[in-house]
Prior knowledge:
It is built from 39 helices and 30 strands. The chain is globular and about 105 Å long.
Amino acid sequence: MKKVQHVMIRASAGSGKTYQLTNRFIHLLVCGQLPERIIALTFTRKAAGEFFAGILTKLAEAAQDTKAAKKLARDIGMQGTSKAAFGEALRTLIDGMGRLSLGTIDSFFHRVLGLFPLEFGMGAEFEMMSEFHKQQARQHVLENLLAHHETRPKERDDLIESFRLSTAGKESRDFVGSFEQHLKNCHELLLRVPSVSRWGEPERIWPFGNPWTEQKVSLPNMVADWQPHLDAEKGFTAALQNNWKKVADHLAAWAPRKNLFAKSPTLVRLAIENLEAMERGQWEFTYSRKTYRPSSGFSQKLARILRHCVAQELTIKLACTQGIYGLLWAFEERYDVQVRRAGRLTFADLPVLLAPCEGQPLLGSSQLDLEYRLDGAFDHWLLDEFQDTSTVQWRVVENLIDEVAQDPDGKRTFFCVGDQKQSIYQWRGGDPQLFDRVANRYEQGAGQEFDIRSLDESWRSCPDVLKLINAVFGDAATLRKYDETAAKDWSKVWNEHVSAKLLKETKGHSLYLAVEEKDQRWPLVANLIERLQPIANGLECAVLVQTNQAVREVVDHLRGALPAIPVVGEAATNPGADNPLGVALLSLFGCAAHPADRFSRGHVRMTPLGVLLPTEDDQWESAMRKLQRDVHQNGFEAVAREWIAQLKEQLNDFSLWRARQFIELARQFDESGSRNIDEFLRFVPAQELAGASGANVVQVMTIHKAKGLTFDLTIVPDLEGNRLDATRRDALHAHTDDEGETEWILDLPPKEICAADPQLSIALAQARSEACYENLCKLYVALTRSRRGLYVIATAPSGSSNNYSQLLTETLAEGDGEPLEDSPLSAQKIFEAGGFDWVEEKPAKEESFIIEPDLITSERSHPRLGHLRPSSHGGTILRGASLFAPHGSDAASFGRVVHEIFEQIEWSDETVPELLKQFRQKNPAATDEVARCLDTEEIGELFKPDTQAEVWRERAFELVVDGEFCSGVFDRVVVHKDNAEIIDFKTDRVDSNGLAEAVQRHQPQLALYRRVLARLTGLKEDGITCLLVFTRPARVMEA
């Protein structure tokens, strides 16, 4: 084989990362390497699929087209490679598909563990748990741990002591809640760093001795000893003297965990930052633009007090960290035996098992033996998304790749691609500095030359989009204001982005808009979408936000403001528990499991389920026992079907949809074999369903979800938040060395306390730099998804907030800005490159002339049916202006409320006034419109009681009509013995002059309703009258 270089590529967003990986794989194939000797790993199944599809597509095209073969030969650096050679490589690849090692890094770890389960202390078989089953397993272990009969007295005492330490100085009676929170925040950290010597150990933090020791004298006595020196200070102004007295009173009553800086914080902060000078009696400080030099007695006595306070605070933090470790380790010991070693694993377990840390030796074999056996399997390693690799994951493959990189014959290779600017998973262990450490190591010590290069030519974004990106991330001086270290690290990996030659003349638009209030952001998004019309213009459009909650908010707003444009949220929903029906059913099952649960019982009583259940206590208990028996005998699916069937007539389309999903969740739970109702009650709310996506919808998703995706236009409206260097409050700090290994872990004290200690000051600076760098990465990912349109929205910064909006304004503003034209909202254009006319310039897609292969076809025994919906023939019209009015969302929901009120009315009787009173609180305008309709003679006639008639209200139907599925919902049907009336309510904003046109528009819908009702009832079509009730003019029209 021809000698091939090791390569490490820093590939900026849109620069062709997958292109480079596929070319490398093909290069190796053409060089005669067997595909099973090549291993290619990435982080998601989607990326692995795109990688494999890219290889097959390139080889297939090159194998049958001379021009494509020449291009591919040039791309892989092997000019002269023939079509036949590429065809042979394709045949080799296809023949070896069953032996390929092309997938996710998790799947590789799973495979290795499957090869050597006994060596890693596992049984012959193991399974990967879902997120829900992981939570269930944790819950069971925790319950066993806390059960008195399961825990020996010594273990129980140790557990109680650990809990006391973990909450030291802070009262907490919620043992289980605190324990679960620690597990959520710190369990994976424990798996990465299991050694107790790194958790809250002073020797690790201060290797030359802990400088913070508590005084034996009580704090009030020390303050009393300092007080005469304070009173004797003559150089202080009256105001300064008074402030110091407040500090003295506060210190005398202070205790750890209380705010040391509650009184005159500036003075206390000045003192703590200068403890050494105070202890020498040489302290000088400036306050209110005046310099003071207090006496040595004042300074030294105060320094003694403050050092004692800091020592107490740090003692608490050390003990707290050790207590958290004690709780986690007690849990981990049981979890390892009861869950992990029983063969039930999570993906987080895999690298921990495969790369045992100190104190965790392998069973029956050495790590070296296993690595030797694995090393013989692969000659070429290809790693994708290297910036997201954690230190623990790298530890698994490090020695294997070392052997490849140092191969003396030069016949084995290492290739990796990553972008440290897209390292947005540091919170779960991703290490952006790993790329540099590995590059430096191999560059200096590898057996062959290492090629380390950067790709900054964008094949995704046009010049106008890159102008904004370069302006923000290329301003090194401004970035340094936010964090010096983060800015330095960023500058190492940043190069100006340029568009590829093919995109140089492509029109685009980048726009940064500032609004005054946060509430203006979502309406401005709607305004931009209406202006750009992405669906009508065939554009892929995404709205990127920071949280799942923001996804839901944006989706709700856009669906109300733009009802004609399909909007899909990519955030997960909980179909079993995000709707009234699901919650009611869960309460019903809760009553069966816990008959004394008054809350669940009360809730069930207030739902439609309540009328199906007895009211007497003894009968209620009997019904709940029957429900328990039904679950035990028939399972949750059968029981759920039975109860939902009794409510079916009362369910709207959305509830029917959710009902089907609830039944499916019940079926999935039944497959586990469990009949435990409490487990079912935990299972259903935990199941998440991602929204469907597609090219013909506006997609709303988190920035993390958008990583790796490309859109024609992106809107980024959710850039509010804290400082870029703000650290997570609920996380312990894991201090790392230059190699990324954790040196020590501590629950850091407040920043003012950290400032007093050099080691803690360095640790806090490290934590802030890491947070700032990760936030820069997140912003970079958000801004680099777009091909041609990039629209950024943020509130105008106030003061020196050092958040995203501040950064954007400082790097992009060239003046005061100017108002956004043709916008109903007040928004200032701070930066703009290009213009809105890029949408008009988008060319139509060229026809592709592809020779279709001859396919053997067969007829379907049952042809696929089309799907008719009556509402597709016409719908309610709302004026566009009403959607952008101050209460636009009310306008969009107006029709739904009107229909909801009419649904509740069977006949006009004494219950109607009370019903209207209740709805008036929800939507007064809609309620008044219904009341006005009922007061008219012709509409009131439709609701006159008729004891001989049957009334259908909001009745859903689905059946086959003339060879097509037809589904819909009747608003109201009155069925008599020989005839029937279909009554359809319309909230169209039309007056009397436009009624004829409106009737014509709805005619096809009513005609289909008539045919459906005839099929359902057996009545003749000419015996069915169709009436349209227009609520605005309060008129009845026959269709």
